[in-house]
Structures are given as structure tokens and as C-alpha cells.
């Protein structure tokens, strides 16, 4: 079983650190943690992770720009994207579908459930919780 790689983009350093720990310790994944969408795009091209998790604490415009650029790059156009957006009610789901966002996670209150939701969206059943017991 190969360890999955995840690119986490979140501009909040404290939340990013907690999410990274959760994803690596509970999910068992290798996590690249990035602060900015531009840096995230560069890292996605470079590393070609198995999935990208974009925490929507940055502006929606930077997220949409990121998605457009990601889907225009041959090396990254098929990388699955999951949006992490607690409490966001304005989301335009047809637009997210257009850019092939797999789903939105809006509850970060339970670290185990957070990793389970990501694994379910990405269909990574065999990967989850290999390191959680």
C-alpha cells in the first residue's frame, strides 16, 4: 500500500498546522502544507499530489483563480480537489462542479470524522486510519 500525498492550502498558520497533524496522524497521508494559492499551484505542478485540500479562509477569488489555473495545467488538471469551507453559505455548487471539485467539507470539529470525510470523497477507503489506533 502506497502512502497518499495531499497538498493542503490554507493561509491560517495555526489551523494549517492542526489540519496537517490530523491528516498525517489520523489519515496516514504525507501532507505538503502551503500558505498561498500561488505557492500551492507551483507545488502541485512540481509534486503532483494525489489530492489537493483547499481551505477557504482565503478569498473566493483566489480560490477560483487557483482552480482555473490548476485545470489549465496539463500536469495538474486531473488532481482531485476537496474544498474545506466551514460555515460558508455562498458557495456556487454548479461552479464548483465545473472545476471538478469533488466535494465540500464544512465541519472541522472532529479530527477523525474530518479525515474520514476526505477519504470517502477521494475513495481512499484502504488508506484511512492505518496509523490512528
From TrEMBL:
Family matches, as InterPro entries: CheY-like_superfamily (IPR011006), Sig_transdc_resp-reg_receiver (IPR001789)
Domain Response regulatory: 5-125
Annotated Gene3D superfamilies: 3.40.50.2300
Domain of life: Bacteria
Biological process annotations from GO: phosphorelay signal transduction system
Name of the protein in question: Response regulator
Species assigned in the record: Merismopedia glauca CCAP 1448/3
Amino acid at each position: 500500500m502506497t502512502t497518499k500525498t495531499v497538498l493542503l492550502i490554507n493561509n491560517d498558520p495555526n489551523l494549517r498546522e492542526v489540519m496537517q497533524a490530523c491528516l498525517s496522524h489520523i489519515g496516514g497521508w504525507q501532507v505538503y502544507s502551503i500558505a498561498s494559492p500561488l505557492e500551492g499551484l507551483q507545488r502541485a505542478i512540481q509534486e503532483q499530489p494525489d489530492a489537493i485540500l483547499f481551505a477557504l479562509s482565503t478569498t473566493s477569488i483566489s480560490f477560483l483563480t487557483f482552480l482555473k489555473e490548476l485545470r489549465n495545467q496539463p500536469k495538474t488538471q486531473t488532481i482531485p480537489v476537496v474544498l474545506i469551507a466551514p460555515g460558508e453559505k455562498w458557495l456556487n455548487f454548479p461552479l464548483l462542479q465545473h472545476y471538478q471539485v469533488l466535494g465540500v467539507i464544512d465541519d472541522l470539529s472532529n479530527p477523525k470524522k474530518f479525515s474520514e470525510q476526505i477519504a470517502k470523497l477521494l475513495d481512499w477507503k484502504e488508506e484511512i486510519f492505518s496509523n490512528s489506533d
